[in-house]
Design a protein that fits this description.
Blueprint lengths: L18 E4 L1 H5 L4 H14 L4 E5 L4 H4 L13 E4 L4 E4 L8 H7 L4 H7 L7 E2 L8 E4 L7 H9 L2 E6 L3 E6 L4 H12 L6 E5 L5 H4 L4 E6 L3 H7 L5 E7 H11 L19 E6 L6 E5 L2 E5 L8 H6 L7 E9 L10 E5 L3 E12 H20 L10 H21 E10 L6 H8 L4 E5 L7 H4 L5 H8 L4 E4 L2 H12 L4 E8 L15 E8 L2 E7 L6 H7 L3 H14 L3 E8 L6 H14 L7 E8 L9 H18 L7 E5 L4 H10 L2 E4 L8 H12 L5 E5 L12 E3 L4 H13 L2 H17 L2 H17 L9
Parallel strand pairs: 1-2, 1-9, 2-3, 9-10, 10-11, 12-15, 12-18, 15-17, 18-19, 19-20, 20-23, 24-25, 24-27, 25-26, 27-28, 28-29
Antiparallel strand pairs: 3-4, 5-6, 6-8, 7-8, 13-14, 16-17, 21-22, 22-23
Helix pairs in contact: 2-10, 12-13, 13-14, 14-16, 19-22, 20-21, 20-24, 22-23, 23-25
């Protein structure tokens, strides 16, 4: 192979003209974490004007997942398929090079037909274009094989003693790079090639400056040892690349960029949550903090993890007039008495930030996809960019807060991209993520234009948790469609979770995967409720008084409680229609059952729910207009937020809870109802949608398909007519599950699973 002559020889590399053409596996994707970070910084803007070229034997399809990996620098060009594919970093073909190669390729079927008489060749099942790759034993490359390949107008490349590629004549890593240098007008004097296997030999045979990284294939080292332009490094991967760049005279190797890594903070545990653990308000022009309205949300449990003096930080937004308001205190204590070492690290966001990042983009783009309503989704690139901007702010703040080796716990889809920004800043951290929502099937999730970015971000975590095994498997499928994924550990779901008896059931769950050289542990952790708190509140005078008032209104009728937020995923309209059918089909129930329908309004500014609200109002009006009598109204409808004590009173007063969302990540209302009825010593019948996550956990619930009108009405009638013995058995079974797996246990087990993942052991789901 003729070496490409330098137009000039200089003793140093000009950072503005530098072109690094590097192999991936064993080279750019290998080496110490710090060296990889340094290379990423240099080619992520640290060396202004520098160009990065991926040169790999991988097929382009296998390279694509790397483009969304935040720990890998983004290439300007990609030479894939051992030189048979030449594209820009945005995957647009480099013409006319791409066309010229394609014109010389006879096609895979022609190659396979010509080589059918060589049974020792085993075709590799890897993505590839304009080449055919085989696994071949020693001695397989015979004159007859070479002749058959030559007759096709192709060439053989045999490497590592077992890999054989059939390529168009004149195609290879080195020739492809030479063509790209000419087409792009690069100065060969400032091009550096890097590799580690004999497959990379043609790169070094160009005569360009080269780096063979540490741990390279001995056969390659032997072939390049006498090449004066090639530096043989001792350090592996990116460490060798950095040493080679320094050897060849890159003056900016040690001082070209500022070190953007954050110094460690003090927090042992960092919560990254979109909301603060208190409500902020302004009274008489003075900012004040109040306890969250609901005492039974997730906040108290997360806060309890800082009891006992654990040093921590809670990263969340604080809505302000600007991102840099005058006199803004970024750090404030949460509760000095209960959590003396916990600070709230507030990120100042404007109203527009909150509106676009949370109210619009998260709810209009992500929410419909998460709950499998893709026809309602709206995707806007400018909103995605604002979302990225806000996620970056959260990641940078978390990086400043965390102590060396600390755990950072990121919460929910609003912050999907935080791990992508955080991992490069703080590779020492244990990053955990928990989804408080569902996770959809891969065919729905992949509708998202930014699916690869999101999956690549989550794959930067050490541990990713979901409510139930089905969501774990959905995530694995989504990841598998974006990148090569290997399942390295799994566990049976029974008896803790339903398997074949529920729409969301699966029989096994993945507990660890490997993707992109990283091991990511996974787990199912259904959030629990605060059973002890509910028990205490049920004994308060306020709940007793509210319950007595509801009992008086029901006047001995069977109460059916339904409580949910205004949202199309909750199935509120379908539920009312089913109740209307019940009254039509069973007229004897008139005056004997009452539906207490409580709808919590959506957050201000959520215009997407306005039409649903109008439809609910009309449907309730129609039902009550059709069936009401002088002393009975079938639907008692509340459209407002009720205090938690009032909600508990409704639970205590109603013999049936009717919870039938079309989709739901879990549904804590179901667990609250069970705990409340148990606290007052009365069984309660729970009708639960098969598509609520809690359905696979609550053995004893009466499951229904909310998309099946007959099922909805039939299950409601069965609940109304259920005998006391069956109702008591079902209720006791569910009460034991809810009490045993309460919210405190959820938090503790999640952090224990994160610690196990960091230690290299995968926690298995606990049996019920």
């Amino acid at each position: 192979m003729t070496a490409l002559p330098f137009r000039s020889r200089t003793p140093y590399l000009d950072p503005r003209k530098l072109v690094l053409a590097t192999d991936l596996d064993g080279t750019l994707l290998a080496g110490p974490q710090e060296a990889r970070r340094r290379v990423r910084e240099l080619f992520g803007g640290g060396l202004e004007g520098a160009t990065l070229v991926f040169v790999t034997g991988r097929g382009l399809e296998s390279v694509m997942p790397l483009l969304a990996d935040p720990t890998i620098p983004t290439p300007d060009y990609i030479i894939a398929d051992v030189g048979a594919t030449i594209v820009h970093g945005n995957l647009r073909p480099v013409e006319p090079l791409h066309h010229e190669i394609a014109a010389r390729w006879p096609g895979s079927q022609a190659v396979l037909k010509a080589l059918a008489g060589f049974p020792q060749l085993e075709r590799q099942s890897v993505p590839q274009e304009r080449r055919c790759s085989f696994i071949a034993p020693e001695g397989a490359v015979t004159p007859a094989l070479r002749s058959a390949v030559a007759a096709l107008g192709c060439e053989l490349l045999f490497s590592a003693g077992r890999y054989l590629d059939v390529l168009p004549r004149g195609v290879g890593k080195g020739p492809a790079l030479r063509r790209l240098i000419d087409a792009a007008g690069f100065d060969p004097a400032h091009v550096v090639v890097a590799g580690d296997t004999l497959n990379d030999l043609s790169l070094f045979e160009t005569g360009l400056r080269g780096v063979v990284v540490g741990g390279a294939e001995p056969a390659l080292v032997a072939r390049v040892r006498r090449m004066p332009s090639v530096f043989i490094a001792e350090n592996a991967g990116c460490g060798g690349i950095l040493d080679g760049l320094a050897h060849h005279g890159l003056r900016a190797h040690h001082a070209g960029t500022a070190d953007v890594a954050h110094l460690p903070g003090k927090a042992e545990l960092v919560m990254v949550y979109h909301r603060l653990p208190f409500d902020e308000a302004v009274e008489d022009g003075v900012a004040v903090r109040r306890r969250p309205k609901s005492p039974n949300g997730i906040m108290p449990t997360l806060l309890s993890l800082f009891s006992g003096g654990r040093t921590g930080s809670w990263v969340a937004w604080s809505q302000q007039d600007s991102r840099d308001p005058d006199g803004f205190a970024s750090h404030v204590p949460v509760d000095p008495e209960q959590y003396p070492n916990l600070q709230a690290a507030r990120i100042a966001l404007t109203g527009e930030d909150v509106d676009l990042f949370y109210k619009k983009f998260s709810k209009e783009a992500f929410w419909p996809i998460i709950f499998s309503f893709p026809d309602r989704a709206e995707f806007r690139q400018d909103h995605w960019e604002r979302y990225l901007d806000v996620n970056r702010l959260f990641a940078e703040q978390a990086a400043r807060e965390a102590a060396e080796g600390a755990t950072v716990w990121v919460h929910d889809y609003n912050l999907w991209m935080v791990p992508a920004f955080l991992r490069p800043l703080r590779p020492d951290l244990k990053i955990a993520f928990f989804h408080h929502t569902a996770f959809p099937s891969s065919d729905v999730f992949n509708i998202l234009p930014w699916r690869r970015d999101i999956v690549a971000s989550l794959l930067q975590c050490d541990y990713v948790g979901f409510h139930i095994p089905r969501y774990v498997e959905n995530f694995v499928d989504a990841a598998r469609s974006c990148a090569p994924v290997e399942v390295v550990a799994s566990a049976p779901c029974a008896p803790r979770f339903l398997t074949y008896g529920c729409a969301l059931g699966v029989d096994t769950t993945t507990t660890a995967i490997e993707a992109g050289g990283r091991r990511v542990a996974l787990g199912a952790h259904p959030v629990g409720t605060d059973v002890a708190l509910i028990g205490r509140l049920m004994q308060t005078p306020q709940v007793a008084a509210d319950r007595a008032e509801i009992d008086g209104y029901l006047a001995g009728r069977t109460g059916i409680v339904s409580i949910e937020r205004l949202d199309y995923v909750k199935g509120s309209l379908e539920k009312l229609q089913a109740f209307e059918r019940l009254l039509e089909q069973h007229p004897a129930l008139a005056g004997k059952v009452t539906l207490l329908n409580i709808i919590t309004p959506a957050a201000p500014g959520m215009e997407i729910y306005d039409t649903l609200r109008e439809e609910l109002d009309r449907t309730v009006g129609r039902i009550n207009g059709r069936f009401s009598t002088l002393d009975w109204v079938p639907v008692r409808y509340f459209y407002r937020s009720l205090p938690f004590e009032a909600v508990l009173a409704h639970y205590a007063a109603c013999d049936i809870a009717w919870i039938t969302p079309l989709r739901d990540g879990l549904n804590l209302v179901a667990k609250e109802y069970i705990a409340a009825r148990h606290a007052v010593g009365k069984p309660g019948v729970l009708i639960l949608s098969e598509f609520a996550g809690a359905a696979v956990e609550l053995h004893g619930a009466l499951l229904t398909n909310p998309y099946d009108a007959h099922s909805m009405t039939d299950r409601l009638y069965r609940a109304i007519t259920m005998g006391p013995d069956e109702a008591a058995y079902r209720a006791e079974r569910m009460a034991a599950i809810v009490a045993d797996h309460d919210v405190a246990r959820w938090g503790g087990e999640f952090l224990a699973a994160v610690a196990d993942a960091a230690a290299g052991t995968d926690a298995l789901p606990e049996a019920a």
